[in-house]
């Protein structure tokens, strides 16, 4: 596989709740369907470059489509053993990383299965630890992970933003330009002080000097 860094995005379609009706892509983007996410590709009118999973969440119609795809081009399908350490999503992200992608946009990665959502948040940290950026996206907002860094939001941003420490503590947390500011705060994972902050029509900056934060944005 080509390990040089690619300019495009790795678009990953999971098997969670699909809340968007369209995903805009560029020709340099690489699309991966994860297990039952293959069925969503038809709805979104996307042609995946790769389909991966143990396919336990794929319906009968999807399994027929998968078999036809595998017969035409077996290199586009990666079948995983159901008894494995990596989740289907993590295995998909590893495929994208191996192909040189460093910007990952994950759709249908959240939903009723809280355990799957939490697993996918951990996958965002895996990407961060492997010199990549990842975002869990849906129609209502997005989730990202910050690690020893800052992120800025434009003054036009509206909605609710919540921050949680992924590790035991995250040091030097600062929030500027929001309703509830913080300065050089040590945020711990047993005290949810970062929940439900609000944008106030100013440019907002979130930063952490040491540690990891889960940043959950809910659009207004």
Per-chain topology:
Layout: E1 10-13, E2 30-34, H1 37-44, E3 50-53, H2 60-72, E4 77-79, H3 88-98, E5 103-107, H4 114-129, E6 133-138, E7 141-147, E8 150-153, E9 159-165, E10 169-176, E11 182-188, E12 197-198, E13 204-207, E14 212-219
Parallel strand pairs: 1-2, 1-5, 2-3, 3-4, 5-6
Antiparallel strand pairs: 6-7, 7-14, 8-13, 9-12, 9-14, 10-11, 10-13
Helix pairs in contact: 3-4
Report the biggest beta sheet as strand number plus sense, adding barrel if it closes.
10 strands, mixed
- The quaternary state of the protein chains shown equals single chain
Tell me the Rg in angstroms.
Answer: 18 Å
Low-confidence stretches: none
Structural class: alpha/beta
The total count of strands amounts to 14
Number of helices: 4
Give the helix proportion (percent range).
Answer: 10-25%
Shape: elongated
The percentage of residues in β strands lies in 25-35%
Q: Give the integer mean of the pLDDT values.
A: 93
Structural features, described:
The chain has helices at 37-44, 60-72, 88-98, 114-129; strands at residues 10-13, 30-34, 50-53, 77-79, 103-107, 133-138, 141-147, 150-153, 159-165, 169-176, 182-188, 197-198, 204-207, 212-219. The chain has 220 residues and is an alpha/beta fold. The strands form 2 sheets. The chain has a 10-stranded mixed beta sheet with strand order 4-3-2-1-5-6-7-14-9-12, with helices on both faces. The N and C termini lie far apart (42 Å).
